[in-house]
User: What shape does this take?
Amino acid sequence: MVDNETSKIIADPKAPDAPAQLEPSRPVGWTTRKKLLLSLMLVTQLTVSCSFSLLAPFFPTEAEQRKKLSKSQIGFIFGCFQMSNLIMAPLFGKYLSLLGVKYLYISGLFLSGGCLICFGILDRAPAGPSYLALCILCRALGGVGSSASVTSGFAIVAQEFPHAIATATGLLEMVNGAGFGLGPFVGGALYEVGGFVVPFAAVGATMMLMSVMYIFIFPSIKSARRAYSGSLLSLIRIPAILIMSMTVFFAFFGLAFLDVGLGPHLKTFNLSVIVTGVIFMTAPILYALTAPIWGWLVDRGHAGRIMIVVGNLVCVTGMVLIGPVPIVGKSHLWLTILAIVILGIGFACSQVPVFRDMLMTAR
Assistant: This one.
């Protein structure tokens, strides 16, 4: 997932302007255009991440009791969103200069919103294999749209904010965490107010309306002078790139596990849907609050890789406690909440420095 300017640097590391692209010490010109651009991107990131976690508090119970799906089938419905992200992100990154950054960004948002509305309508579909197939199709296409927006969004960050990549990424990760946190709360509240369809219709319609507005108000993004000519395999062969990629993979693997497994685990405490949604909010909100701090520290020359290692160790601690593992003892609500707090802080510490580190390594 490389942007136009970064692609040029990777292809020709000796280019005169290459070092300046990622030099952290130069001042950032926060012009009105850049502020508008970043503001629109923050709103987009908020809604996209919210759409992913919207169904966590109520969908597993609905699908299991009313549609007779197994837990593994429900897990696959959750996972296919990120699976399509995984498959499509490298393709979008490679052909970004051909597709156009602004077009890909807006069309991805529109597709995600449309798929979200369709997923809500599936409540009227009969139980059985057809329901499962339609759920997977809607989630997978929604993942394609999310991948388009997020991939082009990172390209915009690297191109438009070359001297504050970690700061801009930290802000995006802040609203990303806020979206993940607000999603279950908003989804649970709207579900109790209007039933299954309302959460998906409300958020999906908002995303589609935003995409139409962006056609007219989203600033133009300069086209690349030349497209990236390298291969994804050549990047993965760089040990540091491979390690960073695995860091991102396992972090989101853990987040997806929480989306599927945390709801049934919290049912043992006899909590309401809204309280469950609030607990779901804890890790993403802490992620959102701490992400800008990590980004600020990285952009000022502090050791990003040390943060990644420490963050991963903190995440391991949270995963050990959330069950918990047998040696810790019995499960308690306070211990589960403590583990979620630890995970939220650890995820932010490990993920925010990754994007800038990968760009520096690829250079």
In short: Residues 129-160 form the longest helix (32 residues). The chain is about 80% helix and 0% strand.
